[in-house]
Protein: UDP-glucose 4-epimerase
Amino acid sequence: MRLLLASGHSVTIFDNLSHSKRSAVAEAATFVEGDLADRDLIQTTLRNGSFDGVMHFAALIEAGESMVKPEIFFRNNTASTLTLLEAMLATGQKRLVFSSTAACYGEPEKTPILEDAKLEPTNAYGESKLLVEHILRWMNKIHGMRYASLRYFNVAGAIEGYGEAHEPESHIIPLILDVALGRRKNIKIFGQDYPTKDGTCVRDYVHIRDLADAHLLALKALTDEAKPSRMIYNIGTGTGFTVREVIEAARRVTGKAIEVEECDRRPGDPAVLVAGSDRIRAELGWNPQHGALDEIITSAWEWHQKRYS
Ligand SMILES: NC(=O)c1ccc[n+]([C@@H]2O[C@H](COP(=O)([O-])OP(=O)(O)OC[C@H]3O[C@@H](n4cnc5c(N)ncnc54)[C@H](O)[C@@H]3O)[C@@H](O)[C@H]2O)c1
Ligand SMILES: O=c1ccn([C@@H]2O[C@H](COP(=O)(O)OP(=O)(O)O[C@H]3O[C@H](CO)[C@@H](O)[C@H](O)[C@H]3O)[C@@H](O)[C@H]2O)c(=O)[nH]1
Structure:
Protein backbone atom coordinates (compact mmCIF):
# COMPACT_ATOMS: atom_id res chain seq x y z
CA MET A 1 0.00 0.00 0.00
CA ARG A 2 2.67 2.49 1.02
CA LEU A 3 4.91 1.66 -1.93
CA LEU A 4 1.97 1.91 -4.34
CA LEU A 5 1.06 5.31 -2.92
CA ALA A 6 4.67 6.46 -3.09
CA SER A 7 4.80 5.38 -6.73
CA GLY A 8 1.83 7.59 -7.57
CA HIS A 9 -0.95 5.01 -7.56
CA SER A 10 -4.32 5.55 -5.93
CA VAL A 11 -5.11 2.72 -3.54
CA THR A 12 -8.36 1.31 -2.22
CA ILE A 13 -8.11 -1.16 0.65
CA PHE A 14 -10.93 -3.66 1.09
CA ASP A 15 -10.71 -5.58 4.38
CA ASN A 16 -13.14 -6.95 6.95
CA LEU A 17 -10.76 -6.03 9.81
CA SER A 18 -11.08 -9.57 11.18
CA HIS A 19 -7.31 -9.73 11.64
CA SER A 20 -6.19 -6.13 11.37
CA LYS A 21 -6.97 -2.62 12.47
CA ARG A 22 -8.26 0.37 10.55
CA SER A 23 -5.24 2.35 11.79
CA ALA A 24 -2.94 0.23 9.59
CA VAL A 25 -4.47 1.81 6.49
CA ALA A 26 -2.59 4.88 5.25
CA GLU A 27 -4.58 8.11 5.31
CA ALA A 28 -4.00 8.58 1.59
CA ALA A 29 -5.74 5.28 0.79
CA THR A 30 -9.48 4.82 0.45
CA PHE A 31 -10.81 2.24 2.86
CA VAL A 32 -13.84 -0.01 2.40
CA GLU A 33 -14.76 -2.26 5.30
CA GLY A 34 -16.19 -5.42 3.82
CA ASP A 35 -15.91 -9.14 3.49
CA LEU A 36 -14.66 -11.01 0.45
CA ALA A 37 -17.87 -13.01 0.56
CA ASP A 38 -19.88 -9.83 -0.14
CA ARG A 39 -19.98 -9.88 -3.91
CA ASP A 40 -22.26 -6.84 -4.21
CA LEU A 41 -19.96 -4.67 -2.13
CA ILE A 42 -16.89 -5.81 -4.08
CA GLN A 43 -18.65 -5.04 -7.35
CA THR A 44 -19.75 -1.63 -6.12
CA THR A 45 -16.20 -0.92 -4.97
CA LEU A 46 -14.73 -1.97 -8.31
CA ARG A 47 -17.31 0.09 -10.23
CA ASN A 48 -16.65 3.15 -8.07
CA GLY A 49 -13.05 3.41 -9.18
CA SER A 50 -10.78 2.89 -12.12
CA PHE A 51 -8.33 0.15 -11.25
CA ASP A 52 -5.13 -1.06 -12.91
CA GLY A 53 -5.51 -4.29 -11.00
CA VAL A 54 -6.52 -6.11 -7.84
CA MET A 55 -3.96 -7.28 -5.29
CA HIS A 56 -5.57 -9.99 -3.24
CA PHE A 57 -3.99 -10.43 0.19
CA ALA A 58 -7.06 -11.23 2.30
CA ALA A 59 -6.88 -14.65 3.91
CA LEU A 60 -6.63 -16.63 7.08
CA ILE A 61 -2.96 -17.38 7.34
CA GLU A 62 -2.09 -19.64 10.25
CA ALA A 63 -1.01 -23.05 9.02
CA GLY A 64 -1.33 -24.45 12.58
CA GLU A 65 -4.93 -23.25 12.96
CA SER A 66 -5.78 -24.74 9.56
CA MET A 67 -5.00 -28.19 10.96
CA VAL A 68 -7.65 -27.67 13.64
CA LYS A 69 -10.35 -25.84 11.65
CA PRO A 70 -9.72 -26.57 7.94
CA GLU A 71 -13.30 -25.69 6.95
CA ILE A 72 -12.90 -22.02 7.78
CA PHE A 73 -9.82 -21.87 5.55
CA PHE A 74 -11.60 -23.40 2.58
CA ARG A 75 -14.58 -21.08 3.12
CA ASN A 76 -12.58 -17.90 3.64
CA ASN A 77 -9.56 -18.44 1.43
CA THR A 78 -10.96 -20.53 -1.40
CA ALA A 79 -14.73 -19.98 -1.65
CA SER A 80 -14.55 -16.25 -0.89
CA THR A 81 -11.76 -15.80 -3.41
CA LEU A 82 -14.09 -17.29 -6.00
CA THR A 83 -16.60 -14.59 -5.03
CA LEU A 84 -13.94 -11.96 -5.61
CA LEU A 85 -13.10 -13.46 -9.00
CA GLU A 86 -16.78 -13.49 -9.97
CA ALA A 87 -17.04 -9.83 -8.99
CA MET A 88 -13.96 -9.05 -11.05
CA LEU A 89 -15.41 -10.81 -14.08
CA ALA A 90 -18.75 -9.03 -13.65
CA THR A 91 -17.04 -5.64 -13.62
CA GLY A 92 -14.53 -6.32 -16.40
CA GLN A 93 -11.53 -6.24 -14.05
CA LYS A 94 -9.03 -8.72 -15.41
CA ARG A 95 -5.72 -8.21 -13.60
CA LEU A 96 -4.93 -9.90 -10.32
CA VAL A 97 -1.87 -10.27 -8.14
CA PHE A 98 -2.58 -13.15 -5.77
CA SER A 99 -0.82 -13.79 -2.45
CA SER A 100 -0.02 -17.46 -2.74
CA THR A 101 2.34 -19.34 -0.51
CA ALA A 102 5.26 -21.70 -0.14
CA ALA A 103 2.79 -23.87 1.76
CA CYS A 104 1.45 -25.01 -1.65
CA TYR A 105 4.52 -27.23 -2.02
CA GLY A 106 4.33 -29.26 1.17
CA GLU A 107 7.44 -31.29 1.91
CA PRO A 108 9.78 -30.63 -1.03
CA GLU A 109 11.77 -33.33 -2.81
CA LYS A 110 14.56 -30.84 -3.61
CA THR A 111 15.75 -27.57 -2.12
CA PRO A 112 15.70 -24.76 -3.20
CA ILE A 113 12.14 -25.33 -4.43
CA LEU A 114 11.40 -24.33 -8.01
CA GLU A 115 7.96 -23.30 -9.24
CA ASP A 116 7.43 -26.55 -11.12
CA ALA A 117 8.05 -28.73 -8.05
CA LYS A 118 5.24 -31.02 -6.95
CA LEU A 119 2.36 -29.32 -5.15
CA GLU A 120 1.27 -31.42 -2.18
CA PRO A 121 0.44 -29.19 0.78
CA THR A 122 0.94 -30.67 4.24
CA ASN A 123 -1.59 -28.29 5.78
CA ALA A 124 -5.10 -27.17 4.90
CA TYR A 125 -3.99 -23.55 4.65
CA GLY A 126 -1.65 -24.44 1.76
CA GLU A 127 -4.39 -26.49 0.11
CA SER A 128 -6.85 -23.59 0.40
CA LYS A 129 -4.40 -21.41 -1.56
CA LEU A 130 -3.46 -24.11 -4.06
CA LEU A 131 -7.14 -24.53 -4.91
CA VAL A 132 -7.22 -20.83 -5.77
CA GLU A 133 -4.23 -21.33 -8.05
CA HIS A 134 -6.17 -24.07 -9.85
CA ILE A 135 -9.21 -21.81 -10.21
CA LEU A 136 -7.02 -19.02 -11.54
CA ARG A 137 -5.61 -21.27 -14.24
CA TRP A 138 -9.12 -21.80 -15.60
CA MET A 139 -10.04 -18.12 -15.25
CA ASN A 140 -7.01 -17.33 -17.34
CA LYS A 141 -7.71 -20.00 -19.93
CA ILE A 142 -11.41 -19.32 -20.34
CA HIS A 143 -11.90 -15.66 -19.40
CA GLY A 144 -8.46 -14.29 -20.22
CA MET A 145 -7.92 -13.13 -16.66
CA ARG A 146 -4.30 -11.99 -16.36
CA TYR A 147 -2.72 -12.95 -13.07
CA ALA A 148 0.47 -13.28 -11.09
CA SER A 149 0.49 -15.80 -8.30
CA LEU A 150 3.27 -14.90 -5.90
CA ARG A 151 4.23 -17.79 -3.67
CA TYR A 152 5.68 -15.98 -0.69
CA PHE A 153 8.02 -17.77 1.64
CA ASN A 154 8.23 -16.38 5.20
CA VAL A 155 7.62 -12.67 5.16
CA ALA A 156 9.25 -10.62 7.90
CA GLY A 157 10.88 -7.30 8.73
CA ALA A 158 9.53 -3.75 8.77
CA ILE A 159 9.57 -0.65 6.57
CA GLU A 160 8.76 2.99 7.09
CA GLY A 161 6.76 2.58 10.25
CA TYR A 162 4.99 -0.56 9.11
CA GLY A 163 5.91 -3.91 10.61
CA GLU A 164 4.69 -7.41 11.30
CA ALA A 165 1.82 -7.83 13.71
CA HIS A 166 -0.84 -10.47 13.43
CA GLU A 167 -3.93 -10.73 15.56
CA PRO A 168 -3.41 -13.02 17.41
CA GLU A 169 0.34 -13.31 16.85
CA SER A 170 1.56 -16.72 15.71
CA HIS A 171 4.63 -15.87 13.63
CA ILE A 172 8.06 -16.75 14.83
CA ILE A 173 9.94 -13.42 14.54
CA PRO A 174 7.39 -11.15 16.26
CA LEU A 175 6.94 -13.82 18.95
CA ILE A 176 10.68 -13.94 19.58
CA LEU A 177 10.81 -10.14 19.74
CA ASP A 178 7.95 -10.20 22.25
CA VAL A 179 10.19 -12.33 24.47
CA ALA A 180 13.08 -9.89 23.98
CA LEU A 181 10.78 -7.05 25.08
CA GLY A 182 9.53 -8.99 28.10
CA ARG A 183 5.99 -9.26 26.69
CA ARG A 184 6.23 -13.07 26.70
CA LYS A 185 8.17 -15.39 28.97
CA ASN A 186 9.75 -17.60 26.31
CA ILE A 187 9.63 -18.75 22.72
CA LYS A 188 8.30 -22.22 22.08
CA ILE A 189 10.30 -24.25 19.57
CA PHE A 190 7.89 -26.54 17.73
CA GLY A 191 9.77 -29.80 17.12
CA GLN A 192 13.44 -30.71 17.66
CA ASP A 193 13.56 -33.87 15.55
CA TYR A 194 13.21 -32.58 12.00
CA PRO A 195 15.82 -33.81 9.48
CA THR A 196 17.71 -30.49 9.56
CA LYS A 197 21.10 -29.50 10.93
CA ASP A 198 19.82 -28.75 14.45
CA GLY A 199 16.50 -30.59 14.36
CA THR A 200 14.31 -27.48 13.98
CA CYS A 201 12.40 -26.32 10.88
CA VAL A 202 14.15 -24.35 8.16
CA ARG A 203 12.42 -21.35 6.56
CA ASP A 204 13.39 -18.72 4.00
CA TYR A 205 12.73 -15.26 5.46
CA VAL A 206 12.04 -12.52 2.92
CA HIS A 207 11.92 -8.82 3.77
CA ILE A 208 8.56 -7.12 3.37
CA ARG A 209 10.16 -4.36 1.29
CA ASP A 210 11.48 -6.89 -1.24
CA LEU A 211 8.05 -8.53 -1.29
CA ALA A 212 6.42 -5.16 -1.97
CA ASP A 213 8.80 -4.59 -4.88
CA ALA A 214 7.75 -7.95 -6.34
CA HIS A 215 4.11 -6.81 -6.26
CA LEU A 216 4.86 -3.62 -8.13
CA LEU A 217 6.81 -5.53 -10.76
CA ALA A 218 4.00 -8.06 -11.10
CA LEU A 219 1.38 -5.34 -11.52
CA LYS A 220 3.50 -3.63 -14.15
CA ALA A 221 3.92 -6.89 -16.04
CA LEU A 222 0.18 -7.53 -15.95
CA THR A 223 -0.49 -4.17 -17.57
CA ASP A 224 1.96 -5.01 -20.37
CA GLU A 225 0.06 -7.14 -22.89
CA ALA A 226 3.37 -8.31 -24.37
CA LYS A 227 4.12 -10.16 -21.12
CA PRO A 228 2.65 -13.58 -20.31
CA SER A 229 -0.91 -13.47 -19.02
CA ARG A 230 -0.21 -16.07 -16.33
CA MET A 231 2.78 -15.82 -14.00
CA ILE A 232 3.73 -17.96 -11.03
CA TYR A 233 6.72 -16.89 -8.97
CA ASN A 234 8.43 -17.91 -5.75
CA ILE A 235 9.31 -14.99 -3.51
CA GLY A 236 12.18 -15.87 -1.21
CA THR A 237 15.90 -15.29 -0.81
CA GLY A 238 17.21 -18.80 -1.47
CA THR A 239 18.73 -19.06 2.02
CA GLY A 240 17.12 -21.01 4.82
CA PHE A 241 17.49 -20.63 8.58
CA THR A 242 16.49 -23.02 11.33
CA VAL A 243 14.26 -21.84 14.16
CA ARG A 244 17.28 -21.98 16.48
CA GLU A 245 19.31 -19.83 14.07
CA VAL A 246 16.53 -17.25 13.98
CA ILE A 247 16.49 -17.15 17.78
CA GLU A 248 20.29 -16.80 17.82
CA ALA A 249 20.11 -13.94 15.31
CA ALA A 250 17.49 -12.24 17.47
CA ARG A 251 19.79 -12.59 20.51
CA ARG A 252 22.58 -10.91 18.51
CA VAL A 253 20.37 -8.08 17.31
CA THR A 254 18.53 -7.37 20.57
CA GLY A 255 21.28 -8.23 23.05
CA LYS A 256 18.64 -10.11 25.10
CA ALA A 257 18.88 -13.68 26.39
CA ILE A 258 15.53 -14.95 24.90
CA GLU A 259 14.46 -18.02 26.83
CA VAL A 260 13.24 -21.01 24.85
CA GLU A 261 10.85 -23.87 25.61
CA GLU A 262 11.19 -27.06 23.60
CA CYS A 263 7.75 -28.28 22.50
CA ASP A 264 6.24 -30.94 20.25
CA ARG A 265 5.96 -30.43 16.51
CA ARG A 266 3.13 -28.24 15.27
CA PRO A 267 0.92 -30.35 12.96
CA GLY A 268 1.31 -29.60 9.25
CA ASP A 269 4.74 -27.90 9.37
CA PRO A 270 7.07 -29.00 6.54
CA ALA A 271 10.68 -29.46 7.67
CA VAL A 272 12.33 -27.23 5.06
CA LEU A 273 10.97 -24.44 2.82
CA VAL A 274 13.61 -22.56 0.83
CA ALA A 275 12.81 -20.73 -2.39
CA GLY A 276 14.41 -20.87 -5.78
CA SER A 277 13.46 -17.40 -7.08
CA ASP A 278 15.46 -17.23 -10.29
CA ARG A 279 12.32 -17.10 -12.39
CA ILE A 280 11.06 -13.76 -11.10
CA ARG A 281 14.60 -12.35 -11.09
CA ALA A 282 15.05 -13.30 -14.75
CA GLU A 283 11.56 -12.46 -16.03
CA LEU A 284 10.64 -9.37 -14.02
CA GLY A 285 14.04 -8.16 -12.84
CA TRP A 286 13.22 -8.67 -9.16
CA ASN A 287 16.32 -7.88 -7.16
CA PRO A 288 15.87 -8.34 -3.40
CA GLN A 289 18.04 -5.95 -1.42
CA HIS A 290 17.25 -6.80 2.18
CA GLY A 291 17.75 -10.55 2.41
CA ALA A 292 20.20 -10.76 5.30
CA LEU A 293 18.53 -12.28 8.36
CA ASP A 294 20.16 -9.83 10.78
CA GLU A 295 18.92 -6.89 8.69
CA ILE A 296 15.40 -8.31 8.61
CA ILE A 297 15.39 -8.82 12.37
CA THR A 298 16.98 -5.42 13.03
CA SER A 299 14.22 -3.65 11.09
CA ALA A 300 11.60 -5.74 12.87
CA TRP A 301 13.18 -5.03 16.28
CA GLU A 302 13.25 -1.26 15.73
CA TRP A 303 9.59 -1.31 14.77
CA HIS A 304 8.61 -3.69 17.56
CA GLN A 305 10.24 -1.55 20.25
CA LYS A 306 8.50 1.61 19.03
CA ARG A 307 5.16 -0.17 18.89
CA TYR A 308 5.21 -1.74 22.31
CA SER A 309 7.54 0.31 24.48
N1 LIG B 1 3.07 -13.56 6.37
C1 LIG B 1 3.64 -14.50 5.62
O1 LIG B 1 4.75 -14.98 5.90
C2 LIG B 1 2.95 -14.99 4.37
C3 LIG B 1 3.58 -15.98 3.61
C4 LIG B 1 2.94 -16.49 2.47
C5 LIG B 1 1.72 -15.94 2.07
N2 LIG B 1 1.14 -14.99 2.82
C6 LIG B 1 -0.14 -14.44 2.37
O2 LIG B 1 -0.08 -13.02 2.36
C7 LIG B 1 -1.37 -12.47 2.62
C8 LIG B 1 -1.26 -11.43 3.72
O3 LIG B 1 -0.77 -12.06 4.89
P1 LIG B 1 -0.42 -11.26 6.22
O4 LIG B 1 0.75 -11.94 6.83
O5 LIG B 1 -0.35 -9.79 5.94
O6 LIG B 1 -1.70 -11.60 7.10
P2 LIG B 1 -2.71 -10.67 7.89
O7 LIG B 1 -3.59 -11.56 8.69
O8 LIG B 1 -1.97 -9.58 8.59
O9 LIG B 1 -3.54 -10.02 6.69
C9 LIG B 1 -4.65 -10.64 6.11
C10 LIG B 1 -5.76 -9.61 6.03
O10 LIG B 1 -6.89 -10.18 5.39
C11 LIG B 1 -8.04 -9.72 6.05
N3 LIG B 1 -9.10 -10.70 5.75
C12 LIG B 1 -9.10 -12.03 6.05
N4 LIG B 1 -10.22 -12.60 5.58
C13 LIG B 1 -10.94 -11.63 4.96
C14 LIG B 1 -12.18 -11.61 4.29
N5 LIG B 1 -12.93 -12.70 4.16
N6 LIG B 1 -12.62 -10.45 3.77
C15 LIG B 1 -11.88 -9.31 3.90
N7 LIG B 1 -10.69 -9.27 4.54
C16 LIG B 1 -10.24 -10.42 5.07
C17 LIG B 1 -7.64 -9.62 7.51
O11 LIG B 1 -8.47 -8.76 8.26
C18 LIG B 1 -6.23 -9.08 7.39
O12 LIG B 1 -6.18 -7.67 7.35
C19 LIG B 1 -2.26 -13.67 2.96
O13 LIG B 1 -3.00 -14.02 1.82
C20 LIG B 1 -1.29 -14.78 3.30
O14 LIG B 1 -1.82 -16.06 3.03
C21 LIG B 1 1.71 -14.48 3.96
O1 LIG C 1 6.02 -20.05 18.38
C1 LIG C 1 6.50 -20.55 17.35
C2 LIG C 1 6.06 -20.21 16.04
C3 LIG C 1 6.63 -20.84 14.95
N1 LIG C 1 7.60 -21.76 15.13
C4 LIG C 1 8.22 -22.40 13.96
O2 LIG C 1 8.80 -21.36 13.17
C5 LIG C 1 8.67 -21.66 11.79
C6 LIG C 1 7.95 -20.51 11.13
O3 LIG C 1 6.61 -20.49 11.61
P1 LIG C 1 5.60 -19.29 11.33
O4 LIG C 1 6.27 -17.99 11.60
O5 LIG C 1 4.33 -19.59 12.04
O6 LIG C 1 5.40 -19.38 9.76
P2 LIG C 1 4.97 -20.63 8.84
O7 LIG C 1 4.13 -21.60 9.56
O8 LIG C 1 6.24 -21.15 8.19
O9 LIG C 1 4.05 -19.94 7.80
C7 LIG C 1 4.31 -18.65 7.27
O10 LIG C 1 5.02 -18.81 6.06
C8 LIG C 1 4.27 -19.51 5.08
C9 LIG C 1 5.14 -19.62 3.86
O11 LIG C 1 6.30 -20.36 4.14
C10 LIG C 1 2.99 -18.72 4.81
O12 LIG C 1 2.24 -19.32 3.82
C11 LIG C 1 2.16 -18.55 6.06
O13 LIG C 1 1.04 -17.72 5.80
C12 LIG C 1 3.00 -17.90 7.09
O14 LIG C 1 2.25 -17.91 8.31
C13 LIG C 1 7.89 -22.97 11.70
O15 LIG C 1 8.81 -24.00 11.54
C14 LIG C 1 7.23 -23.11 13.07
O16 LIG C 1 7.08 -24.45 13.49
C15 LIG C 1 8.05 -22.11 16.38
O17 LIG C 1 8.92 -22.95 16.54
N2 LIG C 1 7.48 -21.49 17.46
